[in-house]
Write a structure and sequence with these properties.
The complex is a heterodimer of chains A (251) and B (303).
Chain A: H1 2-5, H2 11-24, H3 27-47, H4 54-86, H5 89-94, H6 100-128, H7 135-147, H8 149-162, H9 165-182, H10 194-200, H11 204-216, H12 224-247
Helix pairs in contact in A: 2-6, 3-4, 3-6, 4-6, 4-7, 4-8, 4-9, 4-11, 6-7, 6-8, 7-11, 8-9, 8-12, 11-12
Chain B: E1 7-18, E2 21-32, E3 36-40, H1 47-54, E4 62-67, E5 81-84, H2 96-104, H3 113-119, H4 135-147, E6 153-157, H5 165-180, E7 184-188, H6 192-198, E8 201-206, E9 209-214, H7 216-222, E10 226-231, H8 236-239, E11 245-251, E12 254-259, H9 262-272, E13 277-283, H10 286-293
Parallel strand pairs in B: 3-7, 3-8, 5-6, 6-7
Antiparallel strand pairs in B: 1-2, 1-4, 8-9, 10-12, 10-13, 11-12
The chains are: A mainly alpha (251), B alpha/beta (303).
C-alpha cells in the first residue's frame, strides 16, 4: 500500500501554477493591489515632500515595501479565501486528496508574486528619487519585503476560514490600514503619539518595517534580533491561527 | 454485514451531534466494492452527515469512520476517493481542462483528460471557463472531478439534482459501468426512480438510524405486490375485507388498495360494487415501499 502514502509528484507546483493563472486572470484584484502601494509611496513621499532627499526616500522605501506586501497577503488570502469558502470551493479541495499545505503554499506564492510586481514599481520610483543601494542591500531588502507577505498571509488565511466574505474584507481593511499606520509604515514611528507606538509594537508591520530600516541603514528603533524574534513569534502564532482555521468544521 | 473486512468504507457505531441535536446514533454502515449503495431518507435523517463523515469533512463524536481502513480526514485515505458534492462551486477563471488536470494531479493513476471529459459528456468544453457554464454543465464538471482519479470509492451527493434528463441518464450509465468494474459507489438521492434504476442496495435512513437495508426489488416486495386504484362506493374499511388486501385508504376521490394478489382482490371488489369505475392496477413502487417504512410520515420522503 505504498501508493497510499506517496504524494504524486508536482502537486504543490501545479497548485501554485494554477493559483498564479487565476490571479493573472483577475485584473480587478491584481491592478489595484499592485498599483496602490506605489501610488501611495509616490504621492505621500515623493510628491508631497517635493524634491525629497534620497535619505528620506530611502527611509520611507523601507516601510512602503512592507506595506506593499500586506495588501496581496491580506486581501488575496483573507477576503479571497472567505469568498472561495462561501462559493464552496474550499469544500471541493477538502474532499479531494490535495494536501492542505499545497493550497496554502499556492496562495502564498500568488501573494508573493503580486507583491513582487508592486515592489518593482516602488523600487523604480525610489531609484528615480535618487535612492542608491549596494546590490547586497537591494537583495536583502527585497527578500525582507517579499517575506513580509508570510505573516500577513497566515493572518489572512485564518480570517478567511472563519469569516464571511464581507466580514473578511472589512477586517482585512482594518488590519491593512491599522497595521500600516500604527506600525509606522506611512509615518515614521518616532512621529507617532505614545499610545499609537505602543499599539504599533503589537503588529508585524512595525517589526518588519524596523528590520527593513535596519537593512538600508537608517535609524532603527530597538535591535534587529528583537524585531526578528517578534516576527518569528507572530508568524508561529499565524501558523496556528491558519491551521486551526483549516481544521474547523465547515460552516 | 456492517463492519465486514471487505467493506471499502464503513461507519462503526458512529454517533454525531450537530448543533446540540443528535443526528446519528450508533450507526453501522458498510459500503462494498462493485456495488451501488443508495442512501435514502427524509431531510434530517442523517444522509448528509454520513457522507460528510466518510469524506473526511467532519469527525465522529464516538465510533469510527474509515475508508480503506484509514481516517478519511487524512489526504492519503482520500487518494482512492472521488466525491461529487451537492452544493460546491467551481473556480470561475479556470477552464474545465485546467481544473480537471489540476484535480487529476492529486491522484496516483488518474484517467487521461480526454477519457474523463468523454465519461462526463464534456468533450467539447475543455477550453470553456467554468464561469460560462449552464447549471447542468457545472454538475457534469463536478462529476468529472469525482471520477478523474479512477477512485475505488465514488461518493455522489444528489448527483442528478439540477441536471437535465439526458445528462442524468448519461451519468447513470457511466456510474453503472464503473460499479460493474469494481468501484464502490455511495449515492444519496431524493429521486427514487434514480435509486431504483441505479442501486444494487438501498439503505433507508430515518432519524439517524437505518430503517431498512435491502435490494430495491426486496423493498418493493415488502410493500406488497400491487397498488389498485378505482372509483367505488365501497369504504376503505369494506375494501380491506377483500382477499389479499394489505392496506386500503382514500387518495383524493380514488380508493387506493395495496394488495399481494391483484387478481383476487379485483374480482372481489367487482363482485361487491357493480358500479366500480376507473380501475387501474400498478406495481407497488419503491416510493410506496419507503413510505410504508417511514411510518405515518409518508410526505417526508418527498421533501
Amino acid at each position: 500500500m505504498t501508493a497510499l502514502v506517496a504524494i504524486p509528484n508536482g502537486v504543490w507546483l501545479r497548485e501554485a501554477v494554477a493559483e498564479l493563472k487565476r490571479t493573472s486572470r483577475l485584473p480587478q484584484f491584481l491592478v489595484p493591489t499592485v498599483v496602490t502601494p506605489a501610488a501611495f509611496y509616490g504621492l505621500f513621499t515623493l510628491a508631497v515632500a517635493k524634491s525629497p532627499s534620497p535619505e528620506y526616500a530611502l527611509a520611507t522605501l523601507a516601510g512602503y515595501g512592507v506595506f506593499a506586501a500586506t495588501g496581496p497577503a491580506l486581501f488575496g488570502f483573507g477576503a479571497g479565501v472567505a469568498m472561495e469558502r462561501e462559493q464552496g470551493l474550499i469544500e471541493l479541495k477538502r474532499v479531494s486528496p490535495m494536501p492542505a499545505g499545497a493550497y496554502v503554499t499556492a496562495k502564498l506564492v500568488a501573494a508573493v508574486a503580486t507583491t513582487a510586481l508592486a515592489l518593482v514599481l516602488i523600487d523604480a520610483l525610489a531609484i528615480v528619487a535618487g535612492v542608491r543601494l549596494s546590490a547586497a542591500s537591494w537583495a536583502a531588502l527585497t527578500v525582507l519585503h517579499l517575506g513580509s507577505a508570510i505573516p500577513f498571509a497566515l493572518i489572512g488565511f485564518g480570517m478567511g476560514m472563519r469569516m464571511s466574505g464581507k466580514g473578511a474584507v472589512a477586517v482585512a481593511n482594518a488590519v491593512f490600514l491599522g497595521g500600516s499606520v500604527l506600525g509606522g509604515l506611512w509615518i515614521p514611528t518616532v512621529m507617532l503619539p505614545g499610545w499609537m507606538r505602543t499599539l504599533g509594537q503589537m503588529t508585524p508591520s512595525y517589526h518588519l518595517g524596523q528590520l527593513a530600516r535596519g537593512i538600508v541603514g537608517v535609524d532603527m528603533l530597538g535591535s534587529s534580533f528583537g524585531h526578528a524574534t517578534a516576527v518569528a513569534a507572530m508568524t508561529a502564532g499565524g501558523i496556528i491561527w491558519a491551521w486551526s482555521g483549516w481544521r474547523r468544521s465547515p460552516a | 454485514m456492517s463492519g465486514d473486512l471487505s467493506d471499502v468504507a464503513r461507519l462503526a457505531r458512529v454517533s454525531k451531534r450537530l448543533g446540540g441535536r443528535s443526528v446519528l446514533a450508533e450507526l453501522n454502515l458498510g459500503i462494498r466494492a462493485g456495488e451501488v449503495t443508495a442512501l435514502l431518507g427524509p431531510n434530517g435523517a442523517g444522509k448528509t452527515t454520513s457522507v460528510s463523515l466518510l469524506t473526511g469533512r467532519i469527525a465522529p463524536d464516538a465510533g469510527t469512520a474509515e475508508i480503506f481502513g484509514l481516517d478519511p480526514r487524512r489526504p492519503a485515505a482520500r487518494r482512492r476517493l472521488g466525491v461529487m458534492l451537492q452544493s460546491a462551486g467551481l473556480p470561475d477563471v479556470l477552464t474545465i481542462g485546467e481544473l480537471l488536470t489540476l484535480q487529476s494531479g492529486y491522484y496516483i493513476d488518474p484517467r487521461p483528460l480526454d477519457e474523463t471529459l468523454a465519461l462526463a459528456g464534456l468533450d467539447d468544453l475543455a477550453d470553456r471557463r467554468c464561469s460560462a457554464l449552464s447549471g447542468g454543465q457545472a454538475r457534469r464538471v463536478h462529476y468529472a472531478l469525482a471520477i478523474c482519479g479512477r477512485p475505488d470509492l465514488l461518493v455522489l451527493d444528489e448527483p442528478t439534482a439540477a441536471m437535465d434528463r439526458a445528462s442524468a441518464r448519461m451519468l447513470w450509465g457511466t456510474v453503472r459501468t464503473l460499479a460493474d468494474d469494481g468501484t464502490a459507489v455511495l449515492l444519496t438521492s431524493h429521486d427514487l426512480a434514480e435509486a431504483d434504476a441505479l442501486a444494487d442496495r438501498i439503505v433507508v435512513m430515518d432519524a439517524g438510524r437505518i430503517a431498512a437495508d435491502d435490494t430495491p426489488a426486496a423493498l418493493r416486495a415488502r410493500a406488497g405486490g400491487s397498488v389498485i386504484r378505482c372509483r367505488s362506493r365501497l369504504t376503505p374499511d369494506r375494501a380491506a375485507t377483500a382477499p389479499a388486501v394489505r392496506d386500503a385508504g382514500m387518495d383524493g376521490a380514488d380508493l387506493r388498495i395495496v394488495t399481494a394478489d391483484a387478481a383476487a382482490t379485483v374480482r372481489a371488489l367487482l363482485d361487491a360494487d357493480t358500479t366500480l369505475m376507473d380501475l387501474r392496477v400498478a406495481d407497488a413502487t419503491l416510493e410506496d415501499a419507503i413510505a410504508a417504512l417511514l411510518v405515518a410520515q409518508p410526505e417526508r420522503i418527498a421533501a
